[in-house]
Amino acid sequence: MNINAGIGIMRPVNGLMGCLTIIVGILNTRTDTASFVLTANIALACLMYFLIVSSAMIINDIYDYKIDRVNRPKRPIPRGDITINEAKILYAFTLGSAILISVVHSIVLNLSFINVIIALFFGFTGWLYASYGKRSGFLGNIIVSTSFSAGLIYGAIVNGTNIPVFIYYFFLATFSLLMAREIIKGCEDIRGDFQQGVKTLAIRLGKRRAAMVSAFFNFMAILFLIIPVFTPIINPRSYLILMITGSTIVLYALLLTLFADPGQQDFRKISRLQKMGALIGLLAFLVASINTDALQNFLFIFRGETITLIYLC
Q1: How many CB atoms are located within 10 Å of the residue 283 CB?
Q2: CATH number for 35
Q3: Residue closest to 216 by CA, chosen among 176, 172, 185, 246
Q4: Do 152 and 183 lie in a common domain?
């Protein structure tokens, strides 16, 4: 197996973005949690979720290789860098490893195997989306958006049952933005989807109407990004800065959707803007949960009489 192709089919950027949702959920429920438990929760939950997301990306490419020959011929399978059988082996390895890690996590930190149940659920939804959900169109958009956004709530549950209200707003903002992007991707991929019988909103309603639905979800994402400012988040100032930046990018994507007459290249641009807005939004959620002192400790930067942990060679 080509190593670069194996990494490429896993699409690690998506997995890393998913890990951010886990970290946000955990940090927002870290009160009275021992440092070892906090560190172990972050490490094990993120590794499990990264592998789950990777397995979902792989199974999606296995089912979609015919569509990708038309829409994305440079992906590893249609390009010939990795075979279907090799992809299936990699899928089994990533999913199996994720479930094994969830078992270890549950045993070590006494999570009553809720971790295993969640891992199995995420693994099932990844397969469900690839095998059926994507071809059903709007239902598939809901599945993938919920699965990714649920990482925020999953992180909170792993670390405790007291979930702050703004975590739910973070979830709704992420869900809305992902829904908007999934619909736009359907507009972008309409040719290959039509050939393979995928019933996206773009095919059911036409690209223009589908784009309007995407614009609605963009608007909802901006709304749910703003609401947490009025809730008791730990670091409202830093959150506000990143929230405004992310919301501005999403607003630009919304305006392009409403007032442009987007062709395939324009849809690709809108999709990239939405992905950028989602990443900045996740970073905003992250800094919202970290006060200034904790952030400095995390970066190993200390002021005044504290001892620096940066060693020069």
Answers
A1: 19
A2: 1.10.357.140
A3: 176
A4: no
Coil, helix or strand at residue 120: helix
- Tell me: do 144 and 272 sit in the same domain: no
- The tokens describing 282, both together, are 């996740």
Decide if 280 contacts 174 (C-beta within 8 A).
Answer: no
In whole angstroms, give the CA distance from residue 273 to residue 271: 5
- CA-to-CA dists, residue 163 to 23, 121, 169, 292, angstroms: 14, 21, 11, 22
pLDDT band at 248 (very low <50, low <70, confident <90, very high): very high
- Over residues 48-87, the pLDDT tens digits come to 999 999 999 999 889 887 877 777 788 888 888 888 999 9
Q: Residue 101: give the domain boundaries.
A: 1-163
**Total domains in the fold of the chain:** 2
The contacts of residue 161 (CB under 8 Å, 6+ apart) are none
Say whether both 190 and 127 belong to one domain.
Answer: no
Q: d(Cα 308, Cα 190) in Å, to the nearest integer?
A: 55
Q: What is the pTM of this model?
A: 0.80
